[in-house]
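re: that complex we talked abt at group meeting.

here r the seqs, copy pasted straight from the sheet so there may be weird spacing, ignore it
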Amino acid sequence: MSAISSIIKDNVVDHWRKDFPILDQKVNDKDLVYLDNAATTQKPLSVIETISRYYSEINSNIHRGVHTLSQLATDEYEETRKKVQQFINAKNLNEIIFTRGTTEAINLITRSWGEAELKPGDEVIISEMEHHSNIVPWQMICEKTGAILKVIPMNDDGELLVEEYKKLINEKTKMVAVVHVSNALGTINPVKEIIQIAHDYDALVLLDGAQAVAHLPIDVQELDCDFYAFSGHKLYGPTGIGVLYGKENLLEKMPPYQGGGDMILMVTFEKTEYNELPYKFEAGTPNIAGTIGLGAAIDYVSEIGFEAIDAHEESLLQYATASLQEIPGFRAIGTAKEKASVVSFVIDGIHPHDLGTILDTEGVAIRTGHHCAMPVMTHFKVPATARASFALYNTRTEIDVLKAALIKTMEIMGV
Amino acid sequence: MFDLKDLYQEIIVDHNRAPRNFREILDADIKAEGYNPLCGDKLTVYLKLDGDVISDVSFQGEGCAISVASASLMTDQLKGKTEAEAEKIFETFHELVTDRESEIDLEKVGKLGALAGVREFPARVKCATLCWHTLNSALEDHDQGKDSHETISTE
Ligand SMILES: Cc1ncc(COP(=O)(O)O)c(C=O)c1O
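got the structure back, here u go
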């Protein structure tokens, strides 16, 4: 990269940083270096102000009032559904269901689709690198229905073994549920190929997109996935709001997941008629502020565009990988060819938790632990890893601070 | 403000790098396992009793510096103590690492005082107390004549 274009780039990132008020603060007397974006991203002012404006100007319940504020709130809520539809290029608006997050979206599938469709002896395939939220709900529903859970293994770079997947899948396979981008390793999985293979066997595919949506443009029609789940809070939006996308014909056939207000057309004590999609799956008063906030987050990301985000994050990943590798005893966990901006690592002789504590005193926020992916830790024979994950507002200077803090940690720990 | 040095004191770094009593006691009277699911720390504590005197105590396992150093310091402190004394030391230690207001009586806590810094790091208290909780419940089970096969969990 030429000197000039890199200067322009830093200016742009500085500009983006200013959109995130939380970044401008000291933690433990040091400038905050926030590198825990895979856990949750920070929120731009536009999202914060949208939520604040909702509560100070239009707060009302939706879908049930004739008064002006209720109408305004309903409009904004439904406007977000359109934004999500465009964001992931869903064919139909009623294919977008709001949930509490990825976890709830996956549980919706296992409880509604799984309970209705899985029979004893049916098979469900997940992978070795799943987040617990795409393992446990499947274990629960398999236990309940007598279906069998199978696991696609990965290699030591943290890449799924597609050849092994081909051996696992067969006519009994009803669902393939895999992570699009791994939170513990950063691996971007070859989901298009996985989907095509599944469809050859008439199996459905659910993608856990929790880590993908902030880094990659998503086109559910192009992917041809049957279900796609993600959380707003990893996409610069608020917590407590997420999305389940499902193909209309599949969602139509699925029974409701929760009963209550909003999901009905007519209730008598003899019989209840369920509402149409997507409301059938949105029982009760939803997270209205969160939904509208998610709309603002999608606007924010769309305005910057994934081309710019990807170019910046990719350069951060390259820089961090090269720079951290110079540290003696550094070992990257997750070295897939296709990777998002996540660096999971261990340092010889230092437990990740000690790293995390000492880095915090330097103002550097990273995640340490098993990242809700204990089978991944088992694969790599480590109890935990340290993970630095980058977002659009991170800089190379911050990676330098991380590196210096790691070296200081090694001095303190005498390694 | 706390000083990081208060947490990772030399004595802790030293006990982490070269833990004392890091071995199995083959003819142990009590063997107890502790597990912190949050960080994956796992350790086994072995005890040999002579009447109610702890004649030998050791541990094995893996964990962060705080948990390894704490187990190492614990085993050092407990050798030759009675069960009742051990319980007293645990109470003192617990207060030392959890109560930010409590006074630190270095004479009373001895080398364990090295872990006082933990009180400023609430997220790390469980690391320091895992070995003690493991030991404590093993002793209690032993006193009640129960076999302690259950893993002690911090959660
Ligand atoms: C890959 C992956 N799947 C699922 C989840 C769960 O998301 P949430 O906690 O927002 O429901 C996460 C978040 O940690 C994740 O990283």
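couple things i noticed - The pocket of pyridoxal-5'-phosphate is lined by residues A 101-103, 131, 133, 179, 183, 208, 210-211, 231, 372 (CB under 6 Å). The longest strand of chain B covers residues 41-50.
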